[in-house]
Amino acid sequence: MTDTSHDRDVAFIQALAELLRENDLTELRVKREYAEADSLDVRVSRLQPQAPQQQQVHVPAAPAAPQGQPAPAQAEAPADPASDPGAVTSPMVGTVYLAPEPGAQNFIKVGDTVEEGQTLLIIEAMKTMNHIPAPRSGTVREIIVDDGAPVEFGAPLLILG
């Protein structure tokens, strides 16, 4: 490899790092094939600062129950959607689309029954539309992502019941 191709590779890697920062991504991976025995495989990643994810929420005290009646049950705080056993997570970084094309009906809505392998949504990654299938049959309990929203690898997309 000549110094010129080395300089181009360094410039390419710097451009990838810039893309990573500008688009607020955590990782990019690219493989360039130059010739049969000459290629460049690059993985650029960055660590996200771990900020505390606590929110303060003021919950007014429940009114006291009249004597002789049990106190009302406290509502459970919602758990992290990714830890739900029915969570369907993103297999890649990309942009979520809930319908096959703009203006079309969404693939699914809350309350729908889906079969294993049925398309739930599309994630666009590097100009490729990837249909995300249902990992199992069930009922759509919650759709967590919005149409056109960016997602990271492993982010919860929806919850099947």
Average pLDDT level: 78
Class computed from helices, strands and strand pairing: mainly beta
Q: For this structure, what is the CATH homologous superfamily of the largest domain?
A: RNA polymerase II/Efflux pump adaptor protein, barrel-sandwich hybrid domain
Termini gap: 55 Å
Task: Estimate the strand proportion.
Answer: 25-35%
Radius of gyration: 23 Å
Quaternary form = single chain
Total strand count, please? 10
CATH architecture of the largest domain: Beta Barrel
Strand order of the largest sheet: 3-10-8-5
Low-confidence stretches: 50-55
- H/E topology pattern: HEEEEEEEEEE
Helix content: 10-25%
The first-level CATH class of the largest domain is given as Mainly Beta
Major beta-sheet overview: 4 strands, antiparallel
The count of domains is: 2
Stated plainly, the CATH topology of the largest domain is called OB fold (Dihydrolipoamide Acetyltransferase, E2P)
Shape: elongated
Query: How many helix segments?
Result: 1
Biased composition (Low complexity): 48-87
Region (Disordered): 48-89
Pathway: Lipid metabolism; fatty acid biosynthesis
Domain Lipoyl-binding: 85-161
Task: Note down, in words, how this protein is organized.
The structure is a single chain. The chain is mainly beta. The chain has 2 domains: 43 residues, no CATH class; 79 residues, Beta Barrel (OB fold (Dihydrolipoamide Acetyltransferase, E2P)). It has a 4-stranded antiparallel beta sheet, with no helix packed on it. It has a 4-stranded antiparallel beta sheet with strand order 7-6-4-9, with no helix packed on it. A two-stranded antiparallel ribbon has the order 1-2. Strand 1 and strand 2 form a beta hairpin. The longest helix has 20 residues. It is elongated and about 60 Å long. The termini are far apart. Keywords: Biotin, Fatty acid biosynthesis, Fatty acid metabolism, Lipid biosynthesis, Lipid metabolism. Pathway: Lipid metabolism; fatty acid biosynthesis.
